[in-house]
Amino acid sequence: MTPGIIEHLTTAVMLLDGELRPTWMNPAAETLLAVSASRVAGVALSDWLSGEDDIAEVLIRARDGQHPYTQREARLVLAGGDPLTVDYTVTPLSPDELLLEMEPRDRLLRISREEALQSRQETMKVLARGLAHEVKNPLGGIRGAAQLLERDLEQTPALKEYTRIIIEEVDRLRDLVDSMLGPNRVSRREPLNIHRVLERVRALLLVEQPRVSIERDYDPSLPELTGDEAQLIQAVLNVARNAVQALVESETPNPVMTLRTRARRQFTLGAQRHRLVCDVSVIDNGPGVPETLRETLFYPMVSGRAEGSGLGLSIAQSVLHQHEGLIECESEPGRTEFRLLIPLEMSHD
């Protein structure tokens, strides 16, 4: 195969010497591993590529045995700390030269996981919407009857107070049902600064929960994204408010929540590969999300709090879906991270 063809392959291809130092890589390898060939030339592979699966050990076995090896779904960590899942094959060309080929698996695994998650969420939304419409119909009748009764009780203020309570509670239930139906308008797509969104959320939460420290870890180089600022404020607020409430209710010592932004390059959301994705992380040092809730966390009416409506995260996920993004969660005791992933360039319908 000529060098020109290898240069244009989408498969990552790398040549290493007998000491496992790269001597050449094609552009696909540079993109996948987030390095330039010139910077890692002559640098041992283990110095900038590690992970749960010891790739260096496999390469050594291939070199010493002069036998090719293939690893499936190997979990690696890039120099910058980003995880990477790949299928790779190492082929000894000679005792002093190895050919390493890598195919990213993250995209396929992510697509499969997200499609399953979205399918379950859509099923729950259909059920919730059906239930919501069934509830709204009698609510209108109850409110109308209470208003008529209120007129007949003008001369009896004590009884009229009961009709006022009925009307207020009906309105509250109607608002709750509307929340179950998700955002009630189409997102407006306008350029916005995600850090302005986060600063608004931070200011609101500092007033609500002053004893929680809310730290910033922003990437100032992030470009503007296209989206609906009001809806994104609501989505981030729902996620962040969940975090601070968990910190307060669990009486976590020295409660800290961090708002962090990063850029993700060549990132897959759904079945689409995006050149640049905005990663907004809400991180707290609380007790973590109970294992029993993790699979259903974004379903309507699911909450780990006795007084919670179970709608905040469901609404946040709906907003992110309208922005062609999604929310992910990783949690363990002492550290919970919600990642709101939003493409910086949305497609146009």
UniProtKB/TrEMBL annotation:
UniProt-listed GO biological process terms: regulation of DNA-templated transcription
Reaction equations catalysed: ATP + protein L-histidine = ADP + protein N-phospho-L-histidine
Stored InterPro entries: HATPase_C_sf (IPR036890), HATPase_dom (IPR003594), His_kinase_dom (IPR005467), HisK_dim/P_dom (IPR003661), HisK_dim/P_sf (IPR036097), PAS (IPR000014), PAS-like_dom_sf (IPR035965), PAS_fold (IPR013767)
Signal sequence coordinates: none
Ranges where the Histidine kinase domain occurs: 130-346
Matches recorded under SMART domains: HATPase_c, HisKA
Domain of life: Bacteria
GO molecular function: ATP binding; hydrolase activity; phosphorelay sensor kinase activity
Entry EC number(s): 2.7.13.3
Key words, A-Z: ATP-binding, Hydrolase, Kinase, Nitrogen fixation, Nucleotide-binding, Phosphoprotein, Transferase, Two-component regulatory system
Pfam families: HATPase_c, HisKA, PAS
Enzyme class: transferase
Function (record text): Member of the two-component regulatory system NtrB/NtrC, which controls expression of the nitrogen-regulated (ntr) genes in response to nitrogen limitation. Under conditions of nitrogen limitation, NtrB autophosphorylates and transfers the phosphoryl group to NtrC. In the presence of nitrogen, acts as a phosphatase that dephosphorylates and inactivates NtrC.
NCBIfam families assigned: PRK11073.1 (NF008293)
Protein name: Sensory histidine kinase/phosphatase NtrB
Native species: Halomonas sp. RT37
